[in-house]
Design brief:
- With 207 residues, the chain is of the alpha/beta class.
- It has one domain.
- A four-stranded antiparallel sheet has the order 4-3-5-6, covered by helices on one side. Strands 1-8-7 form a three-stranded mixed sheet.
- Helix 4 crosses helix 6.
- The two termini are 32 Å apart.
């Protein structure tokens, strides 16, 4: 159950990316959960560059995520992962679990986009359709803040990142302090989330 003490709705204004200049994907079902060895182009529908049959950026993310260096050389693994995937994902993840949005990656293989910024060569996760946030007991409910109730093998984009000590510490910091506004403090009690000082909602341009 979510118990708001104070609710602040924040509109985070930023320049809209020029999606026409890079690959813009709408992952849906199947390999959109990023399980190793499952990639299928059919699960990553292109919204731009539709005639270009090149999914090498998505394939590179699969490869970097599941590389064995995650357990043998974690620093190299993080470097290679961040070469193809923006680490801002951790901020999104912290907010998404705080607002208990269950209808997205981690429970459902949909309701997000991936944009490949040609200036950086990195894929960025673009949130989409967060209308199920701040609800309880639907489709099994949202993930726990520490993902204890998540099937790790089914959602490796979260599980493998959270298993890394550096990324986990960064995620935990965002949860404690709030990734968008400083000073927000949160605490959890089993599956319940109590907002101690504020809860922050955010809106992302989905055009």
């Amino acid at each position: 159950m979510l118990i708001p003490f104070q609710v602040i709705v924040a509109f985070r204004m930023q320049e809209k990316p020029a999606y026409d200049d890079g690959n813009f994907y709408k992952p849906e079902d199947g390999s959109a959960n990023f399980v190793d060895g499952t990639f299928s182009a059919e699960d990553f529908q292109k919204k731009t560059n539709e005639d270009d049959e090149d999914w090498s950026d998505i394939i590179a993310l699969f490869g970097a995520l599941h590389d064995d260096t995650a357990s043998t050389d974690s620093a190299a693994w993080r470097e290679n992962l961040e070469a193809v995937f923006e680490d801002e994902f951790l901020k999104y993840l912290a907010v998404n679990e705080i607002i208990q949005n269950w209808d997205t990656y981690g429970s459902m293989p949909h309701n997000y986009y991936l944009y490949n910024n040609p200036d950086t060569g990195q894929l960025t996760r673009v949130p989409w359709d967060n209308n199920e946030a701040l609800q309880t007991d639907k489709q099994g409910g949202a993930l726990a803040l520490d993902f204890a109730n998540m099937n790790d093998s089914g959602w490796p984009l979260i599980a493998r990142i959270y298993a890394d000590e550096v990324y986990r510490a960064r995620y935990d910091t965002y949860q404690r302090k709030g990734p968008l506004f400083p000073g927000g403090q949160y605490r959890k009690n089993n599956r319940s989330l109590v907002v101690v000082t504020q809860i922050v909602l955010f809106v992302v341009d989905s055009q």
